Amino acid sequence: MTNRTVRRLGIDVGGTNTDAAVVEIGADGSASVVASVKTPTTDDVLGGIRNALAQVPHEGVEVVVIGTTHFTNAVIQRRGLNPVGFLRLCRPTGSSLPPTVGWPEDLASEVCGAVAMVEGGIEYDGRPFMDVDEAGVIEAGQRFAAAGLTSFVVAGSFAPVDTSQEDRAAELLAECVPGARVTVSHRLGRLGLLERENAAGLNAALVDLASSTIDAFAAALATTDLGHQARLYLSQNDGTLLDLADAARYPVLTFASGPTNSMRGAALLGGVDDGLVVDVGGTTADFGALVAGYPRQANAAVEFGGVRTLFRLPDLLSIGLGGGSRIRTDPLRLGPDSVGQHLTSMALGFGGAIPTLTDAALATGRLTIPGAAIPDVPDAARVVALAAEMVADGADRMKLSADAVPLVAVGGGAFAVPDALPGISEVIRPSHAGVANAVGAALAQVSGETDRVFRNMGRQAAIDAAVAEAIEAATSSGADPTDIEVLEVEDLPLAYLPGDSRRVRARVVGPLRAG
Questions:
Q1: How many helices (H) and strands (E) would you count in the chain?
Q2: Highest mean pLDDT among 151-155, 308-312, 331-335
Q3: Which of 66, 257, 418, 453 has the fewest CB atoms inside 10 Å of its own CB, making it the most exposed?
Q4: CATH for 82-205, among 3.30.1490, 3.10.20, 2.30.30, 3.40.50?
Q5: In what order do the strands lie in the sheet with 231-235?
Q6: Are 465 and 32 in contact (CB under 8 A)?
Q7: Quick check: 102 and 286 in contact, CB under 8 A?
Q8: CA distance linking residue 197 with residue 185, whole number of Å
């Protein structure tokens, strides 16, 4: 909780709409929406942000938080990516599967500029597998520089257990390559080497785009009075804040931040700490689960743009269902293609020629939109029923037990969610549901996490040490050290290792320090 009332502006840039909400957060942790706006997303992204900024009050706003799919879309669409030099600390073993193995060919050819594998690596219990071949690292750096590369990945076996080898290799690369931008894999992933290296590779491929995009975000803010009175952050994929310097270094941390923002906003608007959320936008419906007001985290590998990764991400299910989903016949189906941000010009109800789910909802009276016509949609009732079936199936797949739980329906396409669903105790439609994503962005706090192996110190001492490390990480990122909450602690005894070894993961959050 804060020790005074503060105002924040949250902005979420989606594929169809750019939403903004001013949220007032009280000294007791309560929050209320002061104003909100929904505007179409523009092709250049920044236009939509400027339009949203122009339509909300700025008075008293101290923090602006932007959630964006810009970097996710860059990977999916293969645009704006820079080539990367991959350095793996693995020899004499660990080189049979090279970096970018398993990547789609078109993405690998664009991202993988050069590869070097040298001696090094850590054992699972933290002992060195091999010392780092520093001469080999320097030689690799010289070869990378000769190829014109400035963005690099350093990945080593079990690096999250002991980060010293990756850190040393990064120092050597920075010394021998002027302007080197090095992504160390332990900052982004957990213990699996290939998935961690993949996440770092995607990150390193985005650093050029991240630098220019974040500068543009700051420039857009500077054109308003907010540029002088408010601090700017991006939201990351665990529902917490990412300062501009870290966002420029680690843009992949924004992946899936949009659905996470929606779930955080839904928790507040719907008054639900534990339950399900469905955010139905113009193109997709995203399902997630709330645990203590935060998105449940995924423990399995997640793919982005065809690349398998394993780093902290919300447990999400996305289906191709939204307000702009196109209706197909013979057989009847919805989506996954959508008219997206062109709904108000291409859908039947707005004078266009393409039948969409929004048109079916208008035709059945499920939805009313001022100024929209009542279109003639054959089998409109069946279309609405099909959408309801798709929502019911998504909610059932996201549940972990047979117990009935509440579901909060948010997003501009929430009309697609029926009023009753199997296994759902209550469907909640809160006020400001259409901008839940922007509300969630405004609520973002500061997080800290640790995930490593502790030896010969006992269970409670290991947990205490992990929590202390997570708190230190949160504090160094700007959290108020007097008000940090422990969200998750997991410990796993490792009986096959010598001594009292256990892997402990801890995650904490806290409010941003004032000023």
A1: 15, 23
A2: 151-155
A3: 418
A4: 3.40.50
A5: 31-40, 17-25, 6-13, 61-68, 231-235, 241-243
A6: no
A7: no
A8: 6
Buried residues in 429-466 as b, exposed as e (16+ CB within 10 A) = ebebbbbbbbbbbbbbbbbbbbbbbbbeeeeeebbbbb
CA distance 291 to 296: 6
* Tokens standing for residue 269: 């608007």
pLDDT tens digits, 248-303: 999 999 887 888 888 889 998 999 989 999 989 888 888 999 988 878 877 767 77
At residue 6, φ and ψ (nearest 5 deg) are -130, 155
- In 3D space, the residue among 116, 120, 60, 70 whose CA is nearest the CA of residue 90 turns out to be 120
The span from the CA of 316 to the CA of 312, in Å, is 12
Q: Specify the length of the chain in residues.
A: 515
Residue 56: pLDDT over 70: yes
Show me where the domains of the chain are located: 82-205, 319-439, 445-510
Number of other residues whose CB lies within 10 A of the CB of residue 171? 14
Q: What is the Cα 175 distance to its own chain's centre?
A: 32
Task: Work out the average pLDDT over 401-405.
Answer: 90
Query: 424 pLDDT band (50/70/90 cuts)?
Result: very high
Using the CB atoms, write b or e for 210-239: b if 16+ within 10 Å: beebbeebeebbeebebeeebbbbbbbbbb
pLDDT at 294: 79
Q: Which two tokens stand for residue 7?
A: 């105002």
In percent, the amount of the chain with pLDDT more than 90 equals 47
